[in-house]
Write a structure and sequence with these properties.
Elements (H helix, E strand, L loop, with lengths): L4 E6 L5 H20 L4 E4 L5 H15 L4 E6 L10 H13 L2 E4 L8 H11 L3 E5 L6 H11 L3 E4 L1
Parallel strand pairs: 1-2, 1-5, 2-3, 3-4, 5-6
Helix pairs in contact: 1-2, 2-3, 4-5
Length: 154
């Protein structure tokens, strides 16, 4: 199953001027992976890039119902402090996803990193939007490289 799976990592804050390009690049890379036999896409359920990636998968799924979206949420209360619009979007994504995994009932120090490793350990590909050499996305890219994932940076 791992060979048919891709996960995503990226920043929570995506500059407005980057969103259109990122969404286009996401669609291009997801479509290319589908041609290689990948049909399971894992999203971390975070604001920003994760949300964009999940929405891109759902758009492609409309045309290709064999595509699956799995949302791996680090903790059940992750969305509580988000703006209402962001919360509603993620609730929608989770309601139509093929699978939702809530990895912890509560936030704890390290739950985000655990979620990132959890997704990488179940994937062969990682699509990453990483513009900084530090933080969660950098950590995930480094971990994915150590695990032998194919990294696709956009």
């Amino acid at each position: 199953m791992r060979e048919k799976t891709c996960c995503f990592t990226g920043h929570r804050d995506v500059p407005e001027g980057e969103k259109e390009r990122l969404y286009r690049d996401l669609n291009t890379e997801i479509s290319a992976l589908i041609k290689k036999g990948v049909n399971i896409f894992r999203c971390g359920g975070a604001r920003g890039f994760d949300t964009m990636a999940a929405l891109a998968v759902l758009d492609i799924k409309k045309l290709n119902p064999k595509v699956s979206l799995v949302v791996d949420v680090p903790c059940s209360n992750q969305h509580l402090r988000w703006r209402a619009e962001e919360r509603e979007t993620m609730e929608y994504i989770m309601s139509v996803a093929d699978e939702v995994n809530i990895l912890s009932p509560h936030y704890y120090n390290g739950c985000m990193q655990y979620r990132n490793r959890y997704m990488a350990d179940r994937s062969l590909y990682l699509i990453a939007y990483q513009t900084k050499a530090f933080g969660g996305s950098a950590y995930t890219v480094l971990y994915a490289k150590e695990q032998g994932l194919t990294i696709i940076k956009i």
